[in-house]
Every structure is written in structure tokens, then in C-alpha cells.
Amino acid sequence: MAVANDIYKKMTGPGASVIRKMFEEGAQLKKVYGEDKVFDFSIGNPDLEPVQAVEQAVLEVANDRTKGRHGYMPNAGYTEVRQAMAEKTNFEQNLSGKPGTGLGEALTAKHIVMACGAAGALNSVFKAILNTGDEVLVPVPYFVEYGHYVSNHGGKLRTLTATEDLSIDITAVKKSLNERTAAIIINSPNNPSGKIYTKENMSDLVKVLNEHGKTTGRYPYIILDEPYRAICYNGKNPVSMFPLYSESIVVTSFAKNLSLPGERLGYIAVNPACKDVDVLVNACIFSTRILGYVNAPAMFQKVAAKCWNCDVDYSSYINRMKEITRAVSSAGIEFIEPEGTFYLFCKVPSNKKGDKDDFAFCNHLKKYNILVAPGTGFGCPGYFRIAYCVSEKTIRNSAGAFKKAVEDWI
Amino acid sequence: MAVANDIYKKMTGPGASVIRKMFEEGAQLKKVYGEDKVFDFSIGNPDLEPVQAVEQAVLEVANDRTKGRHGYMPNAGYTEVRQAMAEKTNFEQNLSGKPGTGLGEALTAKHIVMACGAAGALNSVFKAILNTGDEVLVPVPYFVEYGHYVSNHGGKLRTLTATEDLSIDITAVKKSLNERTAAIIINSPNNPSGKIYTKENMSDLVKVLNEHGKTTGRYPYIILDEPYRAICYNGKNPVSMFPLYSESIVVTSFAKNLSLPGERLGYIAVNPACKDVDVLVNACIFSTRILGYVNAPAMFQKVAAKCWNCDVDYSSYINRMKEITRAVSSAGIEFIEPEGTFYLFCKVPSNKKGDKDDFAFCNHLKKYNILVAPGTGFGCPGYFRIAYCVSEKTIRNSAGAFKKAVEDWI
Q: Are residues B229 and B136 in the same domain?
């Protein structure tokens, strides 16, 4: 075998990314049928261009002539950039406490590690915290790549069934906790469901983790994967967890909120109230170095520091959301009402044979030039995900195709 | 323990990067004593600024307004960028053969995977090829991070003693080869010695690997880590290995030749003559995705495609090399004559007690504001490395400090 057995199995087996395959197939289909004839809802690649403030920041940084600006910096990133990300986190997590005040303590630059996107951030965190055989919990539905990120570093992802409304099932958490539980991933708003977990649900989670910690001495980390935090509807926001639970870590990026997914910029923010905060931060820095990220890309670190708090108008995502829910509704497809992100999680309509197979349905949709991701990839067979970060025109034009496809299916 | 045991051990034990620590200490010392009073030879952070053509490319890309330019692209990178890197590799590896011609076949875009620097490239390759317990050989002296890159993915780094002139000891290779040997890393010109391995030495290596392959059925990969390929002196060049051995892979970056280490851009180039070339390339792409790199940073991919073949004048490194060899010679320090890179590998002068301890000597040098890296980190106790990618003035001013330090040591 020319490659590692495990990798070969994963790349050819069901672990292969159907989403990525669709994304690449979509590009091919567009060449054949034309851009406007293909309804590519496969991937979360924001179609909004970066706003003017971002472009301005890119130009300023490109015109900078400071010596060493493309060179190495400390592995954790530029101090001034880390400082900006600390401010951002304090705002989002609602923190203002002075050093040593415990829960509620505000972050400074030293609590931030700049990362190669949220995916890089997650890998650095898992490398930093996982002993071989440790378990990481994640409620379904969840971003399929988590499984790889955890197993890369010797861990095991354990999925948790959700309640009917896709809240976190606290009983399921309780049952799954054991002495090997290193962390639980909370992705709110959630990819693929667009769900924002409620304050009550989150408080119940904290209670259970604290009880477990008191009994076993091991407090699992809550890893808050928050790349969609800024993209929420109707004034809702994900819960600020740092004031509620000390052993918490934010991983996030500028991929979705600033439309910069290809530039690979994100960061890790560690709760200053964390018991071993310095050791944990240093382990994240060390992992970032030895995993070969070395440091987050220099230029876009500076871009982010300049424009992280710029105004971005996400109303077009709301418009798209309305358009897509209209389109699938009129085709008779049921879905979870999204509270944020740019994803719609839908139920596969059952046909005469009672077939609700999501792979079969996604393949069926492909015949109508509709590309969507099967729910199995998110731990939810019988569902499929629509990434509606595409033009409103594409969405409107897809309505007929959805209708026809469902009629031919049921 | 807040973090993984293995990581804690590595980050606090001898595996901690002395070089990085020095680099960060150097920044502190400069604040205290002034930039020109600290002789910081700790890290390979090129002091030459990127040439005009690179700056021009950065500006062009920053001014580009093509839709989706900061978005996701296929995980392997932009096709046109991969095409440019294929051309670069064909030039460097002296390849022009048509598809299917075996050894000597030229690369096309499909043989390239864009990566987050050479460090990212190496991690992707090791993730792609290593089964747990597999071994990777490396001749000393070697870049200390290789050990982490290999063990990250379940492998074990086996170091090979070198001959007196730091050539590859073919007998040592022969002795170390076994059924678990997945690869050998060749870094030419070499960090830290500046050595370029000869054609004869490389041909002998190929012979031994071929013999081993014939006997065991497993042909170890030669992984050519070539970030310093462009920085060679006296018209010398590292051997083009692709025409000599099919199971070979180049990993490299634009960190050193274009002075862009902080931007994290590199690539993997797979020999088209490789037995399972498509599987290997796909495994590298898959690994790049699941390790969280996802793709190499978008903007700098395009920068590299625009200016990879621009003219860069490395003569100042030659001048620096002459200055530094003069400085250490007159202090009575012996060294390996560098044929490329910007490193000088020196012997620790033995003192009255016969003490040749490199850690002790490097700590001693620190008292004279000289920062260098101990040879133990490169697998060579009794040596130390000078990274002379600093201003000629710094080098000239260090001469007195070196002299005084050695006088006080011996």
C-alpha cells in the first residue's frame, strides 16, 4: 500500500467528504450546464464578498513596508492581533472582570492563540488536550470533520442523540460522561441545523458537567466552535459561556463572518478562569507549532486586527433564508427553522416505498442539478443540508427543480 | 492534568524548541539592550525583505476584485497555481518526459498539492503515508521539528549517524532499513550544516533503497525537504532526485527563497513515476483537509504563481557567510564550510576541563548577547548552529563578542 491503511480506508470509505466531492462536482457541472443552471447548495463557501472595510484593510497591509512583515513572529501570533481578539472575545463573551476574579475575568492577549482557521484551531486544541483513547462528545447534528479532527490526535468522537427540536439531550450527555471524557463540542449556531442552543439548555449542560467534575475530578472542556456567531437572525445570539463554566475554550475563524474561508485565519481563546490556563494556552501554542501550522498567516492576522469589528450586513442571508424556505416548503419538504448560519436542515420526503434514504435522495436531486449534502454526514440519516450562501436568483430558480424532483421521488 | 501527558512532556522536556525560545528571548533582549547590541543568530527568519517582484505580486493580488478570490477552492489549491508549481518542479528536477514514460516524466498540476509551508507539507505527507509504528530515517544533523512531524502521525524518527564530512553514511542507512521503514528525509542543502549532498552519495542511497525494495517489496519514499534549494553558493545545486528514484516526493516552501516564512505557503510535489501516484496524491490532499489546513492560504497561492521565478539576488547571504566565517575563525571556532542555506554549523571549542557541552556553551554565549542554537537539537551534541540571515553589521559587530566569549570559555 502506497499510503497509510487508515487514511486509505477513510478517503475511500464513508468517511470521505461527500460535501467536498459535491463542491468539486458542482464546479464541473457549472462548466457543462452554465453557472445559472446548477443549484449548488453543497458547501458553506459564503457568496457575499468581503465588505469594503476588509478590502481596505487588505490594501493597507499590502502597502505596508515595515521590515519583517512577512516573517516569523511568535508562534501564538502578533501581540497586537492577539490583543484585538481578546477584546473581541470579551465583547462576545460578556467579560470585564479583573485578573484573578475567576468566572467573568476578561481575556488579555496571552489568552489568545492565532490559528489557521477554526479547523486548525480545533486540531491544535485536540492535540493539546487529548490522551490516546480520550473521548470527545458532540450532539448531533454536527460538522462531519470533527470526527477526523478528534481521531487525528488519538481521541474518539462520541455522538449524542438530540431531542426532537435538536436541543442538547442532557440525559444523553449524562449517560455518555465517563473518566475518559475530555471535552464536549458545542457549535452554536449549529452547522447544519442553524439552531442556537438556549440559555436554559446550556445551563443544564454546565450543571451536569460540574456534577461530573465534582465526582470524578475531571471537568470536561466545553469547546465552543463559533464561526457562525455573527450570523444570527431576529436579534438572537449564542449564549456567552465563559461566565458560566471555567473550563471553556472558543475556537473560531473569519471564514464565515468576513467571507475569508480560503485565507485560513482563526484563533483559540481560552477562558482566563480555566484552572490551568497558562499550561493550556502553552500547550495550544506548542501544538500549533508542531502540527506545522507554525503560525497563522501573517498578513491576514493584521487584516483581522484592523477590521474584526467592521459592520457587515447579513440581511441578504435572511432574504436567502426566506427564499429557500419558500422554495422547499412549496415542494413539500419539512425543515428545521434556522436561527442563524446559512444552512437549512431538511427532512428527506418519504416516498411510496417508505424510502427516506438521504444518499439516495441527494443523488436523485443531482439529476435536477441540485447539489445538497446528505444528513448521514452530520450524524442524521434521513435529513439533508442546504447551504444557502448562494445568490437569491439561484435559490429562486431552484424552486421549480425542487418541486419537480420531489414529485418524481414520492 | 489540563493537557495531554505527551504534549506536557514534550513542551517542558528536552523536546521543547530551544531555537524558538531563543528567538523569543532575543526579541526581549533587543528591547533591553537595543537592536544593535544583540547578536541574534537563533532562527532562520530571513532578514532580506521580499524583492520588488514579490511586493508587486502582493499588490496585484490585493487589488484583484474577482468574485470568490478569498473563498474556498479545491483542497489541493488553485489549478493554475498547481500548474505553476509543476513547471517549477520540472525545472528544478530536470524533467521533460511525457506521461507514462516512467522515470523522467514531467509533472502536471495534478501532481502538486499546495500546503501551509513546508512544515504543513511534511505533516500532510506523514499523515498520508505512516502506519502506526512505521519508521522514518533521517541523517544527522537534521531539523529538530522532524521528530514531532513524524510522531504526530504515529511514526518513529530514526536518526542516522553521518560520515566525518556530514555526508550520508550509506552503511548506516543499510543497517537501519527494515520492513517498517516508510521513508527517508533528505534536506539538501542541509539545515543546520549548509551541506549539499553529492550526486555520488545520492546515487549510492538510491542503490541501497532499490535493493531493499527488491528484497522486501517496500520501497521507502525519499522525502526531499528543499526550502533552501535556491540558496546555494558557487554554482552548486542539490541533486535532482526525481529522475533517479520513482518513490520520491518534494516538500518545500517560499519561506526562505522569497522571504515569506510568516505567510505559510508551500507545496508537495509527487514524482509522476511513483508506483501509486494517484493514490498518494489523493492521500496528501485528504490529509491536508483533515489536518485542518483545508487549503494553503488563498492570496499567497496567487502571489507565488505570479513570482515564483522572479530574480532574487542571494549574494548578500554569501557576503554574510564570508563575514561570519571570518568572525568565528578569528575566535578560533571550527565549522563546516557551508555550500548553501544561511546556517553555519560550528564545533563547540573544548575548554580546559575538556567540556564540549553545547547547551553550556550556548548559555555561555548568551552572556555576550550572542544567541545561537545548540547542536543537540539537530542530533549533534558538541556543535552549535549560527543562523546568519541577519545584517552584515550585526555579524561584524559580533566578532569581538565571539572572541571574548571563547577566550573566557577555554
A: yes
